[in-house]
Design a protein that fits this description.
Layout: H1 2-17, H2 19-48, E1 59-66, E2 69-74, H3 78-87, E3 91-106, E4 109-118, H4 122-126, E5 132-133, E6 147-150, H5 152-158, E7 169-172, E8 175-182, E9 198-201, E10 218-223, H6 229-246, H7 248-251, E11 254-260, H8 261-266, H9 270-301, H10 303-311, H11 316-352, H12 367-393, H13 397-403, H14 412-447, E12 458-464, H15 472-487, E13 492-498, E14 508-514, E15 526-532, H16 536-540, E16 544-547, E17 561-565, H17 566-572, E18 582-585, E19 597-603, E20 618-622, E21 631-638, H18 646-656, E22 662-667, H19 668-675, H20 677-711, H21 713-721, H22 726-755, H23 771-797, H24 801-805
Helix pairs in contact: 1-11, 2-9, 2-11, 2-12, 3-6, 9-12, 9-14, 9-20, 11-12, 14-20, 14-22, 14-23, 15-18, 20-23, 22-23
């Protein structure tokens, strides 16, 4: 310990003695360590931390697959869930849930809340008990039972943390429900971007639980101890086959798939976050290489000190330990500064991250992140300090005197090490820049995708009508009155409503039957349906290709009609006029009871769910003829800024029913911005890291070349005295730098060709080996690197021979 304390005191004196060196080194390390800590806090919270429930490794999600659409990832109907729960033996427990929006009527004010409708065994399966009150009981699923459990945040904000709230009644969507419990602080299920504020039981869904063809439930299960995922999946296959045979109308071509709950939650962000983490690790490696070069240069100035130490009997191991102590102390100071940077950087990352990133509320600097920072700090100190220490301790006194006969100079071994570090920096920077270039080019391609709508000046807002207060005719009348009121407002060009809007919530998919076309058993095609009011296409800027729009006469009293998109026409009516043809989207609760509908219009294709996938066949139904839901998104287009219409639009809705909350108030441009949020986030972060890598690499190369020129001043003076021109000196120095650049770029290209293939799923419209991107990045790196070499080379040409010959 005395020796360690002695080493520390000496290291501190050495760092204080060279404040500029210490400041540059600490700043470089703080940048690398701080960025790594901030990104790791995100990776740890989102990807690595287990779900905050009991037995998280045994929690599995169950979803429906469709043989006709291998990529389909569907929910499960309540009757199918009941059969699954009764027949399964691999699961200790199975629970179902869905999230919805409800209106809490409190003091004559309607407040919109996010609710989860769950089966009664969900909380028990998760191993969580209410803070006060009780859990759901099996009898709470019986008809006539209406109970609710509040989140801790809602209990504190709306009910002033009163324990007496248990047993009280609250009004949700015009229903009276009894509060039976309050959850503990921090509990959240399901884990999603928007926090759930209360939980209620399945009977709250009413008649939806009786429809086997209505797939709207998420299912989560706890597998029995000792049961593998493969065994549970085999059982699900058997159950799905039995349900298909027993209920072919609803379950044809449908299977069931099992996925670990954490994998299901983070599946979409796993690869992007790992790519970002890899990018920031590259920045740290470049920072370490820069610091190592600084230490190697400093070691040259300390050659005589090392020679004296050896002459006085110091052992190599003792010298190496002293130098490593200095490196680790530097790294520790950089780590502390980096941690302060990470505290700010983590908050910035959360604010920049997409709204849909899972578990974003759990991102913080905790004990695990602090442990990671400490480990990175120690490894960094060893990484950048080991090579300089070995070189410094590997010198014999006679070698030092020979290499430094005229003063301190750089040995051949040390020069090679510095060159190797610069080459590594160049290679790593090139890989990072190519990855950033590919992501940026992919993002720009994504922004140029034609979505089929004109999002400018379109305002959207969501309204949910309580279905126990509004019958189907009443709901139709409400939206028709609201549309008429909105269209009469000054500044409103047109107004309408729809269940689904591009990149918003909600999706209705069903089987499609085409008159005169017979589908093979089990091969019935699929179609996405949109229930809309007239003028929807005019509001959204969707072109009417043929036929007409819906009108007020398209109601229950007249023949059923439908409007289709061009993708449906291409698939089912190639080289035919689709107008007048009849199709049947099977929207009835009882399969086969839907009516044939005449096609009265064809509209352009619209991307509703994915900017990178082809548009599927879609059918538009008149809400007056198919009021399948009482919750619609109101859309209107304005003369000016659509946000100026929020107040008056809300006022018109409240004038029709003051108990209706208005929520999800956004412009259509905001929805499209959310659709590209993940690619934008990925390209932004990786781009920032690539720029930092380029700057650090240029600084490192400049430092090496400047140091080389300083060490070769005597040589340059002799060359000049013997007749070498300034051009010759320039070529000499640039030639040395160019060798580093060529080797580094060559290595970087080889690594990039291998690693960028792993980014394929993150790219759109760009190949992982895109030649144009590779060439552009190489040219940028060459330009910056040559400039970094040119500055010291130009300085070398100004060396006066007389001064250089006297240089020591």
């Amino acid at each position: 310990m005395n020796t360690l304390w002695q080493d520390l005191r000496f290291s501190i004196r050495m760092l204080v003695k060279k404040p500029s060196f210490t400041l540059i080194t600490v700043t470089t390390l703080a940048l690398g360590i701080g960025l790594n800590t901030a990104i790791f806090s995100v990776v740890d919270a989102v990807l690595l931390s287990p779900l905050p429930f009991k037995n998280p490794g045994r929690l599995m999600t169950v979803w429906t697959s469709d043989a006709r659409r291998p990529s389909a990832h569907g929910n499960i109907s309540y009757p199918n869930f009941v059969d699954l729960r009764q027949q399964s033996r691999s699961f200790k427990s199975l629970a179902a849930f869905r999230t919805t929006n409800v209106a809490l009527t409190d003091r004559d004010e309607a407040i919109r809340l996010r609710a989860a409708v769950v089966t009664t065994d969900l909380l028990t399966m998760l191993g969580v008990e209410p803070l006060i009150g009780r859990d759901f009981l099996p009898e709470d699923e019986q008809p006539g039972k209406s109970v609710v459990i509040l989140s801790n945040a809602l209990w504190r904000s709306r009910f002033k943390s009163e324990p007496q709230v248990v047993g009280q009644n609250v009004t949700l969507d015009n229903r009276s429900l009894t509060v039976v419990g309050v959850m503990p602080p921090g509990f959240q299920f399901p884990i999603e971007a928007e926090l759930v504020e209360l939980w209620t039981t399945v009977p709250f869904d009413g008649p939806m639980i009786s429809q086997r063809g209505l797939q709207y439930l998420n299912v989560i299960g706890l597998i029995e101890p000792g049961i593998t995922i493969a065994q549970a999946q085999s059982e699900l296959d058997v159950i799905a086959q039995g349900l298909e045979q027993q209920y072919p109308d609803n379950n044809a071509n449908q299977g069931m798939r099992l996925t670990p709950a954490l994998e299901e939650l983070v599946g979409d962000v796993w690869t992007p976050l790992l790519v970002i983490f890899g990018a920031v690790v590259c920045v740290l490696l470049i920072a370490c290489a820069n610091v190592a070069n600084l230490l190697l240069a400093r070691a040259t100035a300390r050659q005589h000190e090392m020679a004296v130490r050896f002459a006085l009997g110091a052992k190599r191991g003792r010298v190496i330990r002293q130098l490593l102590t200095e490196s680790i102390l530097l790294s520790f100071i950089g780590g502390v500064c980096g941690l302060l940077l990470a505290l700010w950087g983590t908050d910035l990352l959360v604010s920049l991250s997409p709204e849909t990133i899972p578990r974003a509320n759990d991102i913080r600097i905790d004990v695990r992140v602090l442990g990671f920072t400490l480990l990175v700090t120690l490894l960094t100190g060893i990484l950048f300090g080991l090579a300089p220490a070995l070189h410094a301790a590997g010198k014999e006194l006679t070698e030092t005197l020979k290499e430094g006969g005229r003063g301190t100079s750089d040995g051949v071994g040390r020069s090679r090490t510095r060159g190797a570090l610069v080459i590594a920096e160049l290679a790593v920077a090139l890989v990072l820049m190519i990855g950033s270039g590919l992501l940026l080019k992919s993002f720009l391609r994504l922004l140029r995708v034609h979505t089929g709508v004109d999002p400018d000046k379109v305002l959207t807002l969501r309204v949910n009508l309580p279905d126990n207060k509004y019958s189907d005719p009443q709901a139709v009348s409400f939206y028709e009155q609201l549309q008429a009121r909105l269209q009469s407002l000054p500044g409103v060009r047109a107004a309408s409503a729809s269940f689904t809007i591009p990149f918003g919530r909600g999706r209705i998919g069903t089987d499609l039957y085409v008159e005169g076309q017979v589908a093979s058993p089990g091969q019935v095609p699929h179609v996405d349906c949109h229930v809309i009011l007239p003028d929807y296409f005019r509001v959204m800027g969707v072109p009417l290709i043929a036929g007409r729009d819906f009108t007020a006469r398209d109601d229950m009293k007249n023949r059923p009609v439908v409007i289709v998109n061009e993708a449906l026409v291409r698939r089912f009516f190639p080289n035919e006029d689709p107008l007048g043809k009849r199709i049947r989207p099977d929207m009835s609760a009882t399969p086969g009871d839907s009516e044939m509908r005449e096609i009265v219009g064809v509209v352009g294709d619209v991307m509703y769910y994915n900017l990178t996938a082809e548009v599927e066949p879609e059918a538009y139904l008149s809400y007056s003829q198919m009021p399948i839901t009482t919750g619609l998104t109101v859309v209107l287009t304005s003369e000016g800024d659509p946000r100026n219409l929020i107040g008056v639009t809300r006022g018109e809705i409240q004038a029709l029913d003051r108990e209706l909350p208005v929520f999800d108030v956004k412009t259509l441009n905001q929805y499209f911005s959310m659709a590209v949020a993940h690619p934008r986030f990925n390209s932004l972060l990786v781009g920032i890291f690539a720029c930092l890598a380029l700057i650090l690499t240029a600084i490192g190369l400049y430092g090496v070349m400047s140091y080389s020129v300083a060490q070769r001043t005597h040589e340059i003076g002799i060359r000049s005295a013997l007749g070498a021109s300034r051009r010759d000196i320039l070529k000499l120095v640039l030639g040395q730098g160019l060798r580093f650049i060529v080797i580094g770029v060559s290595l970087g290209l080889g690594v990039a060709l291998a690693l960028t293939r792993l980014m394929g799923e993150l790219l759109f419209g760009v190949a992982p080996t895109d030649v144009a991107t590779f060439a552009a990045v190489v040219l940028v790196l060459l330009a910056v690197a040559l400039f970094a070499c040119f500055v010291p080379a130009r300085r070398a040409t100004k060396v006066e021979p007389i001064v250089a010959l006297r240089y020591e």
